[in-house]
Specification:
Radius of gyration of chain B: 24 Å
Strand content of chain A: under 5%
Shape of chain B: elongated
Distance between the termini of chain A: 62 Å
Number of helices of chain B: 2
Structural class of chain A: mainly alpha
Largest sheet of chain A: none
Number of strands of chain B: 18
Oligomer: heterodimer
Radius of gyration of chain A: 18 Å
CATH class of the largest domain in chain A: Mainly Alpha
Distance between the termini of chain B: 83 Å
CATH architecture of the largest domain in chain A: Orthogonal Bundle
Number of domains of chain B: 1
Number of domains of chain A: 2
Number of helices of chain A: 8
Largest interface: A-B, 40 and 31 residues
Order of helices and strands of chain A: HHHHHHHH
CATH topology of the largest domain in chain A: Rna Polymerase Sigma Factor, Chain: A
Number of strands of chain A: 0
Largest sheet of chain B: 12 strands, mixed
Chain lengths: 168, 288
């Protein structure tokens, strides 16, 4: 009985992973601007949802995952400078083809431009125009008012417009 | 003046930028493994808390939960010679067993005032896996995890690998964790974990997981002692019968980090009344 229950949970978890992992990874990449950090963020979110599923403590796993990714991305951005200063990520001896692809993604103009937009504005604009979420839902996700979300998006669009115009 | 960035253009740029991003192979397995590790660590900490509550303030307890299974089910470290061990009493240890501890959990009070707890988690399907994770937590070590493999699912104890207990076998004050990973009709098979350079490691012999045979019958059996000179680990064993005589072996191993190194081996012939001396355990409070 217990084994059957565990299998069901694992199946649910696998389905959740297959359906949403890559989209959440892309969202995290846009929020943190670095694929390795994005993977850390999304994997951490899935580890947390695994526990919640285990305890039958989550009704809307996708909403929980998205919220966790946004929160972890914000936290990642806050602590990035400190982490880089204190514990730099060791460089591999030789870059693999996969790493090369990651670097290429990180070099994309829009990703570089997003990195230069303040974190809250970046979250708002990515959630609005890439994740296609309504402003009310973004406001709930970010814990701010709808008016604040509109302000973030407006300022982000202005700044991105300038940055992308300047880009070679 | 620059042309305003349209939402449609931004959406397209963002989509183009991240569309090539895909999951790395093995990500799902890594997530599952990490989730299991954390669950095991949480259980271990819960056990520790329960043991500490039972012990009262200031007490330090070792709680060991059941779980995984080790690899290599050959017969012990090797059948070895006679013991003549003296049941030297180590520091007083009180056995604790929290009422809500998982099946197979064991909790021990450590003599040196260290708090410790350990749990074993299956990796994969609990009903068939031979891969397990030992998660240990002590005040001195912090949380430690080490994966190990059982030689055969069929040889596992009914409740899976079982933590037998803790003993300061190497005499360094850190303590070693003994885990039962196999069971025959009359003998048990134990593996050992110890802290080396701040990391919990499985103890090896000749590059393979070291395994101790404990107990036996009238044909073959084994045991060990960790109370010899210099805290060497002495494994005993006997086998066969030839005209009422058994071949008994006494093998001495020395601790070298996460390995045991052969020091000496002696063989002798004994008779049936002496067999019991070759299948006991004399190592702190460990007992089959």
């Amino acid at each position: 009985m217990m084994i059957a229950s565990q299998s069901q949970e694992l199946d649910d978890f696998t389905a959740l992973y297959v359906a949403h992992y890559e989209q959440l990874l892309r969202l995290a990449l846009l929020l943190v601007g670095d694929l390795a950090a994005a993977e850390d963020v999304v994997q951490e979110a899935f580890i947390r949802v695994h526990r919640r599923l285990d305890a039958h403590a989550v009704n809307m796993p996708l909403a929980y995952l998205r919220q966790t990714v946004v929160n972890l991305a914000r936290s990642e951005l806050r602590t990035r400078l400190v982490r880089l200063r204190n514990a730099p990520r060791p460089m591999p001896d030789a870059a693999s083809a996969e790493e090369g692809a990651c670097a290429a993604i990180s070099r994309q103009e829009v990703i570089r431009a997003l990195r230069r937009v303040p974190a809250r504005q970046r979250q708002a604009v990515v959630l609005r125009y890439w994740a296609d979420l309504p402003e009310a839902e973004i406001a709930e996700l970010m814990g701010v008012s709808v008016g604040a979300v509109k302000g973030y998006i407006s300022r982000a669009m202005s700044k991105l417009g300038l940055l992308l115009e300047e880009a070679p | 003046m620059t042309a305003p960035l349209s939402p449609e253009r931004l959406a397209r740029l963002l989509d183009d930028a991240v569309r090539p991003v895909t999951a790395r192979p093995g990500t799902l397995d890594r997530i599952r493994l990490a989730a299991r590790r954390r669950r095991a660590a949480r259980r271990a900490r819960a056990l520790l808390l329960a043991a500490a509550v039972i012990a009262g303030g200031g007490a330090t307890a070792l709680a060991l939960a059941p779980g995984g299974t080790p690899a290599v089910v050959s017969y012990g470290l090797e059948k070895t010679g006679p013991p003549s061990y003296v049941g030297a009493a180590r520091a007083p240890a009180v056995s604790l067993r929290p009422a809500h501890a998982p099946v197979g959990a064991a909790a021990l009070m450590l003599p040196a005032g260290q708090a410790a707890t350990a749990a074993i988690e299956p990796i994969g399907d609990a009903a068939t896996t031979t891969s397990f994770l030992l998660v240990a937590y002590t005040a001195g070590w912090g949380a430690q995890t080490v994966a190990f493999t059982a030689p055969s699912a069929a040889a596992l104890p009914p409740s899976g690998p079982t933590v037998i207990g803790w003993a300061d076998a190497a005499g360094d004050g850190q303590g070693e964790i003994f885990v039962q990973v196999g069971r025959g009709c009359c003998a048990q098979f134990w593996i050992i974990f110890r802290l080396v350079d701040g990391h919990l490691r499985q103890v090896s012999l000749y590059g393979r997981p070291a395994e101790l045979a404990v107990g036996g019958n009238v044909v073959t059996g084994g045991g060990f002692s960790c109370e010899g000179p210099g805290h060497d680990l002495v494994a005993y064993g006997y086998t066969g019968e030839n005209g009422g005589l058994f071949l008994a072996t006494r093998t001495t191993y020395r601790w070298a980090g996460a390995a045991l190194v052969l020091v000496s081996r002696q063989q002798t012939s004994i008779r049936a009344p002496e067999l019991a001396r070759y299948r006991g355990v004399s190592c702190g409070d460990l007992s089959p």
